[in-house]
Amino acid sequence: MRIFIDTAPFIYLIEEHPEFSHPVKDLFLEYVTNNDSLISSVVKLAKFGVGPEKAGRPDIILKFEQFLRKLGIQILDINQEIARKSYQLRAKYPFLKGMDALQIAAALVNSCDSFLTNDVKLNSVKEIKTITLMK
Questions:
Q1: Radius of gyration of the chain (CA)
Q2: Cβ contacts of residue 114 below 8 Å, gap of 6+?
Q3: For the chain, what is the domain count?
Q4: Is 7 in contact with 17 (CB distance < 8 Å)?
Q5: Is the distance from CB of 107 to CB of 115 less than 8 angstroms?
Q6: What is the pLDDT of residues 30-59, one digit of tens each?
Q7: What is the pTM of this model?
Q8: Helix, strand or coil for residue 41?
Q9: Which pLDDT does position 133 carry in this prediction?
Q10: Which of 80, 81, 88, 93 has the most crowded CB, counting CB atoms within 10 A?
Q11: Among 13-17, 97-101, 104-108, which is the least confidently predicted range?
């Protein structure tokens, strides 16, 4: 399977979130064991880096980048096809924020089977199966 990973699961792992880091670790272990393809986009770096940058913590960004390399997560660039799909999604789902739409569009254009997030609003997007940690 091709699993697209949104930004929040990475934040939970790297920053060791007390509630969500263990469920995310379990999911990642399952995906790796199943030889699933783990995919994300450059958008997650833009989203992930804000907190550590504000806090003056380049070590967290480095840890994040090392984690991506270690797991071999494919990082997609945003292109015109993804941008087009993004605006189509935003037109259909007015609640979608720009970066979320880009992430989902990247997943769809690259034939991902599911989208791992913790944003329950994204469950409303019918074009892809979403997996959320919160129920």
A1: 14
A2: 1, 2, 3, 4, 128, 129, 130, 131
A3: 1
A4: no
A5: yes
A6: 999 999 999 999 998 888 888 899 999 999
A7: 0.91
A8: strand
A9: 83
A10: 93
A11: 13-17
